[in-house]
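Re: duplicated header lines in exported structure tokens

Our pipeline writes sequence and tokens for each protein into one text file. With two proteins the header for the second block appears twice in some exports. Here is an export where it did not happen, for reference. First protein block:
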Amino acid sequence: MKKITVVLIALTLCLRVLAQEELRIHHINVEDGDATLIGIYDVATHHYKSTILIDGGASNPNDLLLPYLRTVMATHVNYVVLTHYHKDHYNGLLALKDGRLTADSVIDPGAEGGPAAMEVATPWLDVVKTQHHSRNFVSFGTAKTSIGHKLTLGTAGGLPVVLECVAGWGNTLNGQGITPDPKPQKSNANNFTLAFVLTCGQFRYFIGGDLGGKTESEYIDQETALISDFTKEFPVAWSWNHTTSASGHLCGFKADHHGSEHSNNQAFMNSLSPAITITSAGKQPSWHLPSPAYLDRLAQVSALSGNRGVYFTNLYDFAHTPSKSTADSLFSHRPQTSYSYGNAMAGQKSSYLIKVPTANLANKSAFQVYRVDDAGARMTLLAGFQCHGK
């Protein structure tokens, strides 16, 4: 009896330790561009076991990115990923060159060996040269073997945390294999974007850089192929009360290309039936993002969870493009909808944190979204979501 009691106590302590781990996703407000920090967080020690930073935003790294990182953890991460070669994604990552930001490994779409027509940023290539000598540098995308590559960040609550590359260099997983790049001589850097699905137990999340959602002069549609891939990988998910099911469901996603009219097509977003959507956009008047056309499409999406979260790092009204007014009219009084944007309070650049507890995550996905202010120092709960189960 004594031996059984000791074993039960040890098992209880082990389960308690596992339950103290969370998967956390920070969508950092860097004004223009994207910056996403993903980490496995130990609640007991207030320490991140493993971290990955995807993109760094357009602003000077000292202004927004690095202060946030210093507050929530440190300026060293295990992995840095650049999705593609546009300044609003790589500029904050230039801190790698002089050590203000450090990483064990750096992943980019393939800065060496790309076609001559590709738009490549010289400042980022300078970083690549320094990282080749001092870090484990990996180029995704140029080889199709990178598509479908799975990077395991560690475990949270005993569950593997996996980041799978589902698109890159114009090639896209489609459920049967890879849809090849339809425009090999493309020059729009958005079409080289790396896109990923993050999974931990029943939690699934999509981060697609500036992936395109329709084929036209400068863009290619990679989102539609992913519908088939997600349907194969996630064939069924049930609502929390087990009355409704969906195939291809993901718990949430960061909107592609900052909510541009060229991305986030209706079929793609509908297929995800996501509980939350986070759109990272800024104040650049020539971009006027997010586009009202995207916002109209987003308003038509239904969530498997019932309630929805619709979040923006920033919203502005531009000349001839009323992004903020459109979003307000669509979401501010919408039933069962949590709506927030990061420049709503004077003097603040609010970011968003998704906390995914690991208790019972093998069977059901539930999580909370927080607004994060004062460069990561203060958190306010916005909403909780009972997303889905097996």
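Second protein block, exported in the same file:
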Amino acid sequence: MSVRVSALAALLTLASPLAAAEIVPPADPLHAAVLAAATDSVADELGLPVQLHASELRAGDGFAFLSANVTHADGSAIDFRQTPYADAVEDGLFDGPHLWALLREDDGAWTVLEQDIGPTDAWYAGWPSAHGAACDLIFDGFTGC
């Protein structure tokens, strides 16, 4: 048993760390692919066509973290009282049209693992560790996930 534990410890020690996340510029095809997946997911959640205006997109090791503002497809503001977020708006637990989303790439396709619009707190801080992504996916030097 101790030999197995020692072998496992050695393998874990030799395993390379997750690749550092990097900011993905808008001109990068990866930016468009991640934004398209997130847009579809948000549109499904809200039940209406939307447009995402990325503030920042970070990606690394098959994961992406997106920060974006959500509007109607024509760019106009959404009245979130007319969406599934109505109760949160009414209860003062909605902090604007900002989206946070964690995505994973599998075989060239991006899938939203977690998303939240208008959170009043940083619920997303634990997402990377919950899904096996590096903490710095959220921002450089972040280690608290």
